[in-house]
Amino acid sequence: MADKVVHFELPADNLERAQNFYRAAFDWSINTVPGMGYTLVQTTPSGTDGSPTQPGAINGGMLARQAPIKNPVITIEVASIDASLKQIEKLGGRVLRDKQPVGEMGFAAYFSDTEGNVLGLWQTA
User: Fold this and answer.
1) Cα distances (angstroms) measured from residue 68 to each of 11, 78, 85, 86, 110
2) What pTM did the predictor assign?
3) Dist. CA 47–CA 101, nearest whole Å
4) Rounded to an integer, what distance in angstroms lies between the CA atom of residue 113 and that of residue 76?
5) Topology of 4-124 in CATH?
6) I want to staple 125 with a disulfide (CB 3.0 to 4.6 A). Which of 10, 13, 99, 106 is the partner?
7) Of residues 65, 48, 68, 51, the one with CA closest to residue 108
8) What are the pLDDT tens digits along the chain (125 aa)?
9) Beta-strand relationship, 118-124 and 59-64
10) Cβ neighbour number for residue 113 with a 10 Å cutoff
């Protein structure tokens, strides 16, 4: 099965302003995660594990604009970040941020493709 898009991230210069904008514009539920410097953005109903209950729908996050996340990012779920990063580099992409744990939920990494687009990878723990 192909790897799928499972998350998006919106960088912001002013988080409060951005949160207010997306709440008012799209009626999204936006909740800051204490101690993580990260905001969860819920665009669709989710189950108890946080996964969307509607097929094809995704939720996301918001964070302060910083390298490498300067523009919106889509995140792709993979079985192995390590294997995916090796393949990405082999194909001419570049690792921007190596695999990092995200609490006990899983792992994240960032890369740029051959066109300079920044994307994220997610591996569930």
Assistant:
1) 10, 20, 16, 19, 8
2) 0.87
3) 23
4) 13
5) 2,3-Dihydroxybiphenyl 1,2-Dioxygenase; domain 1 (3.10.180)
6) 106
7) 68
8) 689 999 999 999 999 999 999 999 999 999 998 888 899 999 998 888 778 999 889 999 999 999 989 999 999 999 999 999 999 999 999 999 999 999 888 999 999 999 899 999 999 99
9) unpaired
10) 13
In three-state form (DSSP H/G/I as H, E/B as E, the rest C), the secondary structure along the chain is: CCCEEEEEEEEECCHHHHHHHHHHHHCCEEEEECCCCEEEEECCCECCCCCECCCCCCEEEEEECECCECCCEEEEECCCHHHHHHHHHHCCCEEEEEEEEECCCEEEEEEECCCCCEEEEEEEC
Compute the distance between CA of residue 59 and CA of residue 48 in angstroms, rounded to an integer: 14
Tokens 């994220």: give the residue: 120
Q: How far is CA 72 from CA 15, 91, 97, 123, 125, in A?
A: 14, 23, 16, 20, 24
- What is the pLDDT, as a whole number, of residue 1? 65
